[in-house]
Amino acid sequence: MLIGTQDSILGDKNRIAMPKKFSDELGNKLILTRGYDNCLIVVNDKNWNKLISQFEAVPFLNSDVRDVRRFLIGSAIEVELDSQRRFVLSENLKTYANLTKEVYFVGLGDWVEVWDKTIWSKRMNEMNSTEIANKVFEVIKS
After folding, report:
1. Running DSSP on this structure, what letter comes out for residue 19?
2. What's the pTM value of the predicted model, to 2 decimals?
3. For the chain, which ranges sit under pLDDT 50?
């Protein structure tokens, strides 16, 4: 399972090293795409197919579905890790996530998010676990 937080450095030529604990589980061939809240999502083929299969049952005629597909699939890139577990990040994904030098990889079960350190720290300070728990409870209850 992909869990925990690991830091990394965005290097020259937009190269970044995937933390070993995540690459061991995900493998060397990855898919990166835009995530929500200005982060990136990293998955392997298996988890990508699981994510994309959720759209198969939803009518293509729905404009929101098309927009989500554009957001996730349209921005996706395939990367392969080198012998040092590095990959090259596309400029458009780097810009989208406002990535600077220091980044965090955050394991969330089936996927990993990539955050700029400053944005991640701010996001963590803004979260209120009690409020989040109450909102999730309301969703489960209904």
Report:
1. P
2. 0.87
3. none
Paired residues of 125 in beta bridges:
none
Place of tokens 């030098």: 101
Q: How many CB atoms lie within 10 A of CB 111?
A: 22
Separation CA 83–CA 136 (nearest Å): 41
Q: Which ranges in 15-128 belong to alpha helices (H)?
A: 20-26, 45-53, 63-72, 91-96, 117-126
Would you list the DSSP string of 118-132?
Answer: HHHHHHHHH--HHHH
Q: Tell me the C-alpha to C-alpha distance, in Å, between residue 103 and each of 19, 39, 58.
A: 11, 10, 34
Asked if residues 14 and 101 have their Cβ atoms less than 8 Å apart, the reply is no
CA-closest candidate to residue 44, choices 121, 129, 107: 107
Task: Judge contact between 54 and 111, C-beta under 8 A.
Answer: no
- Residue 14 is given by DSSP the state G
d(CA 93, CA 54): 23
Rg of the chain over all Cα atoms, to the nearest angstrom: 16
* Per-residue pLDDT, 102: 96
